[in-house]
Design a protein that fits this description.
Keywords: Membrane, Transmembrane, Transmembrane helix. The chain crosses the membrane at residues 20-39. With 45 residues, the protein is mostly helical. The protein has one domain (2-44). The chain has three helices and no strands. The protein has helices spanning 2-14, 16-38, 40-44. The protein is elongated. The chain starts with a helix and ends with a helix.
């Protein structure tokens, strides 16, 4: 069990695509919160 978990963690850490996807997901989440809270979309238009 421990070996499997460590291998999986290692794969996630080594995989840049997963890291990139996580970064995009987080940034999108923040953008949605900021745009919704401050009404940024309306200001831009």
């Amino acid at each position: 069990m421990t070996r499997r978990i460590s291998k999986r963690k290692r794969f996630v850490m080594m995989n840049p695509i997963i890291q990139f996807f996580k970064f995009i997901y987080l940034s999108l989440k923040i953008l949605v919160v900021v745009a919704g809270g401050h009404g940024g979309t309306r200001e831009v238009k």
